Amino acid sequence: MSINTETILVIDDKKNIREVLKDFLETEGYMVVTCGTGEEALNLIEENLPDIVLTDFKLPGIDGIELTRKIHVLNSEMPIILFTAYGSISSAVEAIKAGGYDYLTKPLDYDLLKIVLRRALDQKLIKQENLLLKEEVAKRFNLDKLIGKSRAMQKLFSLIKTVAASSSAVLIEGEYGTGKELIAKAIHRYSDRQGKPFIIVDCSALPEGLLESELFGYERGAFTGASNRKKGRIELAEGGTVFLDEIGEMSLALQSKLLRVIEEKQLVRLGGLHPISIDFRLITATNRDLKSEVVSGNFRADLFYRLNVIRVKAPALRDRKEDVPLLVDHFLAKFNRQEGKSISGVRPDAMNMLLSYNWPGNVRELENCIERMSVICPEKELDTEYLPQEIKEAAALHYGSTEKVKVAVAEGIQDMDRCFNIDADSYTYTGSYIDSTGNMHLDRVERETVLKALEKANWNKSKAARLLNIDRKALYNRIKKYNLL
């Protein structure tokens, strides 16, 4: 007898079946709890969560399908195996759709039951270990919501900590969506000013007159509507940090006033007469080339040199694509919490498409993409069909010529054939996965993969799922998707 520490909850309205299953499972070394109804099961689960549930399809009151749905509300990661004497494809599909891990028919094949139980528990353990690993990776490759294991990001993390120790002005350069504001926040957080205010001003969001009053404040009566004195953002940041985003959008007149404040460490409110001493650190950011703006006369040279004491470059996502999987995991976790979902990851072909895309909108575009996919995807994994069209088109172009695509697909099919113990040399590529423009249809490849697995397994769904290394629910989804029944 093997010794297991897992607890199995067995649910069947027939006492003799409960007792037989309990004896068998205890002989296998499991701890077993039994009950006869779905209501009892829910009470037991709320009191003490089992590792796995084994339930009859037909139960009085709450049946096995409804029970499965309710258990998933309590714990979406709980493996549930359903069994019944009334076996059919439709009832199996119903069970899997409800969230069941697998489906067995009576009389139970106890050897098969052992295999299914062990596989379900092993997969649950792997998921838990992967979650812990992801948390470890997140701690190691995460700096104040800046995420990346790439060399570019590790250098950036190191630079942020070094820069934070000084009070010199910092200029952050980078494209839209590269996380310039997050970099500024991280510098403030790691500095000795972290307990003081961090004030953000978006210079591109306000017209010149309003931006001036926002920055420097005003006295009562300074202009029509100024009924009370108001402190400006720079004054409110006393002892802390001011972050001026998109500084390149500031007018030359306002640049001149900002330069004076930086040089004198004093400001005068609009309509005021007396200078006010201020202590703040200035961090600015731009998506423009300020050197070129100076040459063209759109930006003051003296202000540029005041701002450019320490220059930090925010890397574009296309230059650190190895960070895409980490970012995807981060955003998936975020949107799972927001949407109440439990999407476990991204299918390999979809991830390859994400990696082949150049992300002109950088991390912000990737975040929007994952949010969109998370909202519309009904499955446990994000698939290619939920990707935005521009990413699919870019992925097709990424493979290059028709001949390159043919070779890539043929190699993939040969790998698949080897997996199924089919002679790869006997396979003749027909080009049916390529359209007239040379684009590869991944759906056709997937359909062929599923079909080959089913044929190899003599249409035994459990065996086919094992060949494909997916669970039965995922297999049933694809059988339905490609009309293979």
* Major sheet summary line: 5 strands, parallel
Here the CATH topology of the largest domain equals Rossmann fold
Question: Based on the structure given, which CATH architecture of the largest domain is correct?
Answer: 3-Layer(aba) Sandwich
Helix count from the secondary structure assignment: 20
Entry summary:
With 485 residues, this protein is of the alpha/beta class. The chain has helices at 15-27, 38-47, 64-74, 89-97, 110-140, 151-164, 180-189, 208-216, 233-236, 252-264, 290-295, 301-307, 324-339, 348-356, 362-376, 389-398, 402-419, 442-456, 461-468, 472-481; strands spanning 7-11, 31-35, 52-56, 80-84, 102-105, 142-143, 146-147, 170-173, 198-202, 217-218, 230-231, 241-245, 266-267, 276-277, 281-286, 310-313, 345-346, 381-382.
Structure description:
The protein folds into 4 domains: 7-138, Rossmann fold (3-Layer(aba) Sandwich), CATH 3.40.50.2300; 160-315, P-loop containing nucleotide triphosphate hydrolases (Rossmann fold); 317-398, Orthogonal Bundle (Helicase, Ruva Protein, domain 3), CATH 1.10.8.60; 401-485, Arc Repressor Mutant, subunit A, CATH 1.10.10. It is of the alpha/beta class. α18 (442-456) crosses α19. Helix content is 49%, strand content 13%. It has helices spanning 15-27, 38-47, 64-74, 89-97, 110-140, 151-164, 180-189, 208-216, 233-236, 252-264, 290-295, 301-307, 324-339, 348-356, 362-376, 389-398, 402-419, 442-456, 461-468, 472-481, and strands at 7-11, 31-35, 52-56, 80-84, 102-105, 142-143, 146-147, 170-173, 198-202, 217-218, 230-231, 241-245, 266-267, 276-277, 281-286, 310-313, 345-346, 381-382. It is built from 20 helices and 18 strands. The strands form 6 sheets. Strands 2-1-3-4-5 form a 5-stranded parallel beta sheet, with helices on both faces. It has a 5-stranded parallel beta sheet with strand order 9-12-15-8-16. Strands 6-7 form a two-stranded antiparallel ribbon. It is elongated, with a radius of gyration of 31 Å.
